[in-house]
Write the structure tokens for this entry.
Amino acid sequence: MASLDPVLDKDGVRLTVDDAIATVTLTNPAKRNAQSPALWRALAEAGRQLPGTVRVVVLRAEGKSFSAGLDRQAFTPEGFDGEPSFIDLARGSDAELDATIAEYQEAFTWWRRSDIVSVAAVQGHAIGAGFQLALACDLRVVADDVQFAMRETSLGLVPDLTGTHPLVGLVGYARALEICATGRYVTADEAVHTGLANVAVPPAELDGAVRDLAAALLAAPRDAVIETKALLRGAGGRTYEDQRVAERAAQARRLRDLAGLGE
């Protein structure tokens, strides 16, 4: 397949679009795709630049590791060039610190938009912020060498890049607490067994498996996928009876659209 001109290519993030499929690639394998505020801003920008034709977004990374997590330069007094260091952030007001973390989180929030299905292709290490970025996606296909770990607690911090909600939803409170509090590695077998990953394949087959999944996701009509995704995402916050009502309303919309009677 011919290479595509990037829609975005900056700060370790590249976005390409091929009709209904967009690919976001982490492009700093020399640093194991370590993350920084600049990378987070680029990821947020990639979400804003998605064309309306996109139905599936694939998140992948160059090199042997998906992402080693936050660049340790963040913990130095100097921090990153042009960025406040973590020490500077700690000295700010509660409102300033909250606003800064909220801005960082924007890189992780758009992957579950109702109009797209996002798929993370994860190989090697996915540590801390890398783990949370994989968790930000709807689905995860992993190489059988994958090693997830949530190391924030070991550093005296907490996972704050939106990863705690999907982690508890996927593996339950007790296992999520144990994973976060110990910082241990979660391998491919455990990831599939607990629902963290949809499937594990040999590293050489990762790209092919993701392509196959993307093609399968595109096979169903777009509006039906959007409605189904909304139903499933909201199910955890509804009672059984409320979910029945939501199903009926969604189906009524679909039937009217199929009959040409939609608004």
